[in-house]
């Protein structure tokens, strides 16, 4: 009988998933075997790789005269789970690694330089977002929220804190609202919506599957759908009744938002101010009463 050793009880740990690399080389090698549609997508990506990292799946599909599903399928053939992972891998092949922290940073930047670059990026995002944010869309959003019986706010990942903040700010001015940051609850909430409900979806990329699906379900259920998303075409836009757009470039290909959150919070601030003025008496009364309650939580 074999003697059991201490190592016999140790189970091998699963191997960590290797990052996808060499995307352009893979695409070039795969090109001769592709279908006509996939070949058009591949040709477009190969000829415009530096631009593709800033594009949505919808924009790539339109340029290649293909469907979004065909773009995703090609990405999966290359070993990516989907378009976003492919785009991150493509970016890894094109840019310096430090740019995954922040686009404008260099490895040898000192602390003062880092601070200045980050603040300049934030200010640029605010200035650019002001240019693309449409006053008419903001007015439509205010009108829809004022008429709504309740407001549901959707956000996942880095958008979740923005959704929570918007929920808090809406309640402070007397508007019945709820933040839903779990994908399953988002689907349930959206399916149970109706014509009296307004949903607000926060998604920088406009390509997050869960929030796109929830927004689609809410629209199909009759809700008015408001979307806070970055400028440019994305799958989310097809299900938006009202668009409040930002212009923050740095998170087009990165996994976490930085300047996009600054721009989103500015839109939230503007929306809350417009709503407070549109419902002035109720808002002032609610702010006063909640201030008294919250003051008891401070020394």
From TrEMBL:
Keywords: DNA-binding, Transcription, Transcription regulation. Pfam families: HTH_6 (PF01418), SIS (PF01380). Residues 141-281 form the SIS domain. SUPFAM superfamilies: Homeodomain-like (SSF46689), SIS domain (SSF53697). Gene3D superfamilies: Glucose-6-phosphate isomerase like protein, domain 1, Winged helix-like DNA-binding domain superfamily/Winged helix DNA-binding domain. The keyword Metal-binding does not apply. One of its GO terms (molecular function) is DNA binding. InterPro entries: Homeodomain-like_sf, HTH_RpiR, RpiR-like, RpiR-like_SIS, SIS_dom, SIS_dom_sf, WH-like_DNA-bd_sf. This is RpiR family transcriptional regulator.
């Amino acid at each position: 009988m074999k003697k059991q050793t201490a190592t016999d009880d140790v189970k091998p740990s699963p191997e960590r998933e290797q990052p996808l690399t060499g995307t352009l080389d893979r695409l070039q090698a795969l090109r001769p075997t592709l279908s006509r549609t996939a070949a058009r997508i591949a040709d477009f990506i190969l000829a415009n790789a530096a631009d593709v990292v800033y594009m949505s799946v919808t924009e790539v599909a339109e340029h290649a005269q293909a469907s979004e599903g065909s773009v995703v399928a090609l990405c999966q053939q290359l070993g990516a789970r989907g378009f976003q992972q492919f785009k991150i891998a493509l970016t890894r092949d094109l840019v310096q690694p430090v740019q995954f922290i922040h686009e404008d940073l260099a490895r040898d930047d000192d602390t003062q330089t880092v601070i200045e670059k980050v603040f300049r990026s934030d200010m640029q995002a605010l200035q650019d977002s002001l240019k693309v944010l449409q006053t008419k869309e903001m007015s439509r959003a205010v009108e829809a929220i004022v008429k709504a019986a309740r407001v549901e706010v959707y956000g996942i990942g880095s958008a979740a804190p923005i959704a929570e903040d918007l929920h808090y700010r809406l309640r402070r001015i007397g508007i019945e609202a709820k933040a839903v940051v779990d994908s399953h609850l988002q689907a349930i909430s959206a399916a149970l919506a109706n014509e009296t409900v307004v949903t607000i979806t926060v998604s920088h990329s406009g390509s997050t599957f869960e929030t796109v699906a929830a927004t689609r379900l809410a629209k199909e259920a009759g809700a008015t759908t408001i979307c806070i998303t970055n400028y440019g075409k994305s799958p989310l836009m097809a299900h938006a009744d009202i668009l409040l757009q930002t212009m923050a470039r740095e998170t087009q290909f990165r996994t976490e938002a930085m300047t996009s959150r600054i721009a989103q919070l500015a839109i939230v601030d503007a929306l809350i101010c417009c709503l407070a003025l549109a419902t002035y008496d109720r808002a002032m009364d609610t702010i006063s009463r909640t201030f008294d309650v919250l003051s008891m939580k401070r020394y």
